[in-house]
Amino acid sequence: MSKKPMYLKRRGGSKVFWVSALLALLLIAVWCNRPKPAVQPEPVVEERQEIISESVFKGRVEEIVSPKFGIKAYYMFQKSGLTSVSFTFIQSGKAYENPEQAGVANIVAQTLKEGAGWWSAKELRNLMGSSGIKIGFSVSKDDFSGQVTFPNEQKENAVKYLREMLLNPHFEDRYVETAKAGAIRAIETQKENPSTELLLEFNQAIYGDFAYGRNPIGDIETIKKINRRVLVNFVRNNLAKNRLFVGIVGNIQKEAAEEMLDNLFGKLPILESREIGVPYINWHRPDVNIERNIPQNIVVYAAKGTCRKCEDFYPLYIANYILGGAGLNSRFNQRMREKENLTYGVSSWLDLNDNANILTASFSATGDKSERAEKLFEEIWQEAGEKGFTEDELQNAKDYLISSHNLRFASTSGIAEMLAYMQKYDLGVNFLNQRNQLVKDVTLRQLNQAAKDYFDSNFIKGKIGNINK
Question: What domains appear along the chain, each with residue ranges and CATH number?
Answer without folding.
Answer: 20-44+51-265 (3.30.830.10), 288-465 (3.30.830.10)
